[in-house]
């Protein structure tokens, strides 16, 4: 048993280190000077539609080198972080700027553990028809409840009023008793959680490190609850003996994950945690720049991430592979898509003109984990064939390669997760990047306010409504 665990973990590490080696063979340059040096504002840059090329801010959090295909968080290569680190460690790194010491990581994990428990919020979510809601909209709802609770707590120092949306069974009418199952543990108990020692806790304003930790800890609980409630199951209480990734899988499936599954989820969370000025990070930062709060910023991030051109692509990829159906159908299907001028989900990127390093890890991981069942193996083969066809057709000319969303869905499917939860999983990870970037930006905040070029008409004469055609 112990040997199997060690073998599995070694195999995963080998996959990551092999991917690193392959990437390094193709990387023959340094960081791009135009994106990696101190600047003094205002700065000259060539801006295209969709703010392509625009410099929004300076950062020390992370860097994407699109032409070489490498990604770093706070100076550390993504391959090394995946091979040697954990999502908790990476979240600490993104938020606080340095890798934690043993003691710091222990305290950080304790804080995260405490904030996993969101009984009151799960209870509230159960009173909504989540099965008819987009899971990302439901996630925004959950974050909104977190914000409301936190705002109350700050103002009222956790007195009885603050519990008005809390765990009291009588506070929410339920027409039918919850449908239970034997594995579900759902207790309506009240508990005061100790505040983390080393962080300023509980603020919703500009210094809300405590709120960020609550969000990083809370999103897995909310997403898992949403996934279960949608299927008519009761949410599962977190298990604080498990890692964030392991506990997330446990709360989703009701089963303690194998060390292999836990490690794979951990790597997925590390890989998705931060990625420059992507649309959802920018959305979160725009909201924060108005001096709104971190919960609202994260909600904006979730809203932006949901779209199929962004994080929503991971779910679309799986639906697409399902639609293609067989390896033999890949070429005809692709030809149809090109005729209709459709985008192929999971391919292309605004910044990467080389292979996305995250896909370098997720591809082989998907291959390994898909080998377990014939159905998954077939899905993987379709994905691989499509990658070859896209590459042959325009990959090299247009620099269109698989992005992070291409293989992640296959990994999640192999972990027995429903496709509608793929994009929420992206949010469970990216919340640490959103929070880190928001906190950093607020240190030297200036409200975001670009201009648009007006090319409408001038000097039109107003016609009263009864004289209009
Ligand atoms: C993520 O920004 C980030 O960092 C995002 C992200 C993160 O971690 O935060 O990496 C996560 O969002 C990954 C992307 C997930 N989205 C998809 O997989 C959807 C499919 N991909 C695309 O629609 C597209 O590639 C985007 C949205 C990702 C990027 O869009 P751009 O930069 O605006 O590029 P474009 O649409 O202007 O395309 C440029 C050219 C066009 O050809 P030409 O008109 O110049 O001849 O490339 C072609 C496009 O037609 N093209 C594609 C394509 N992606 C680009 N053609 C077919 N299929 C595609 N997927």
Task: Give a written overview of the molecule.
The protein has 17 helices and three strands. With 469 residues, the protein is an all-alpha fold. The protein has two domains: 86-311 and 426-443, Citrate Synthase, domain 1, CATH 1.10.580.10; 314-414, Cytochrome p450-Terp, domain 2 (Orthogonal Bundle), CATH 1.10.230.10. It has a three-stranded antiparallel β-sheet with strand order 1-2-3. The N and C termini lie far apart (80 Å). Residues 156-207 have low confidence and may be disordered. The protein binds s-citryldethia Coenzyme A.
The total count of helices amounts to 17
Task: Give the ordered list of helices and strands.
Answer: HEEEHHHHHHHHHHHHHHHH
Shape: globular
Distance between the termini: 80 Å
Radius of gyration of CA atoms, rounded to a whole number:
23 Å
> What is the helix fraction of residues, given as a range?
40-55%
What are the low-pLDDT stretches, counting only 5+ consecutive residues below 50?
156-207
CATH superfamily of the largest domain: Citrate Synthase, domain 1
Ligands and ions found = s-citryldethia Coenzyme A
Largest sheet: 3 strands, antiparallel
- Examine the coordinates and then state which fold CATH places here, giving the name of the CATH topology of the largest domain: Citrate Synthase, domain 1
Give the amount of beta strand, in percent: under 5%
Query: How are the strands of the biggest sheet laid out side by side?
Result: 1-2-3
Rounded mean pLDDT is 88
Instruction: Count up the domains.
Output: 2
The CATH C-level name of the largest domain is: Mainly Alpha
CATH architecture of the largest domain: Orthogonal Bundle
- Sheet/helix structural class: mainly alpha
Number of E strands: 3
């Amino acid at each position: 048993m112990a040997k199997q665990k060690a073998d599995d973990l070694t195999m995963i590490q080998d996959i990551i280190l092999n991917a690193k080696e392959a990437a390094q063979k193709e990387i023959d340059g340094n960081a791009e000077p135009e994106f990696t040096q101190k600047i003094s504002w205002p700065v000259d840059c060539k801006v295209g539609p969709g703010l392509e090329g625009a410099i929004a801010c300076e950062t020390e959090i992370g860097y994407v080198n699109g032409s070489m295909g490498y990604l770093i968080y706070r100076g550390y290569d993504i391959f090394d972080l995946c091979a040697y680190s954990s999502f908790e460690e990476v979240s600490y790194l993104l938020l606080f700027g340095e890798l934690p010491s043993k003691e710091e990581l222990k305290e950080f994990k304790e804080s995260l553990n405490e904030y996993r428990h969101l009984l009151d919020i799960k209870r509230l979510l159960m009173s909504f028809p989540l099965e008819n809601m987009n899971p990302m909209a439901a996630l925004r709802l959950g974050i909104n409840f977190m914000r409301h609770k936190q705002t109350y707590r700050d103002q009222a120092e956790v007195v009885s009023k603050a519990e008005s949306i809390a765990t009291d069974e009588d506070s929410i009418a339920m027409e039918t008793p919850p449908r239970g199952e034997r594995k579900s543990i759902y207790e309506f108990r009240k508990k005061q959680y100790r505040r983390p020692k080393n962080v300023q806790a509980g603020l919703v304003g500009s210094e809300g490190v405590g709120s960020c930790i609550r969000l990083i800890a809370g999103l897995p609980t909310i997403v898992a609850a949403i996934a279960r409630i949608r299927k008519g199951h009761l949410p599962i209480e977190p298990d604080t003996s498990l890692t964030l990734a392991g506990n997330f899988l446990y709360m989703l499936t009701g089963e303690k994950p194998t060390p292999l599954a836990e490690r794979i989820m951990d790597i997925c969370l590390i890989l998705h945690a931060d990625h420059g000025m992507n649309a959802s990070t920018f959305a979160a930062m725009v909201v924060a720049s108005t001096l709104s709060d971190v919960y609202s910023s994260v909600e904006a991030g979730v809203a932006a991430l949901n779209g199929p051109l962004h994080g929503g692509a991971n779910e679309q990829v799986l639906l697409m592979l399902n639609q293609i159906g067989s390896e033999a159908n890949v070429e005809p299907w692709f030809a149809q898509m090109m005729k209709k001028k459709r985008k192929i989900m999971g391919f292309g990127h605004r910044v990467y003109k080389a292979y996305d390093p995250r896909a370098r890890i997720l591809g082989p991981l998907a291959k390994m984990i898909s080998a377990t069942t014939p159905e998954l193996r077939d899905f993987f083969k379709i994905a691989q064939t499509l990658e070859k066809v896209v590459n042959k057709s325009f990959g090299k000319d247009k620099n269109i390669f698989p992005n992070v969303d291409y293989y992640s869905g296959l990994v999640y499917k192999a972990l027995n997760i429903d496709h509608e939860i793929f994009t929420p999983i992206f949010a469970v990870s990216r919340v640490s990047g959103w929070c880190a970037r928001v906190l950093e930006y607020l240190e030297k905040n200036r409200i975001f306010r670009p201009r648009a070029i007006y090319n409408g008409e001038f000097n039109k004469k107003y016609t009263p409504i009864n004289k209009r055609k």
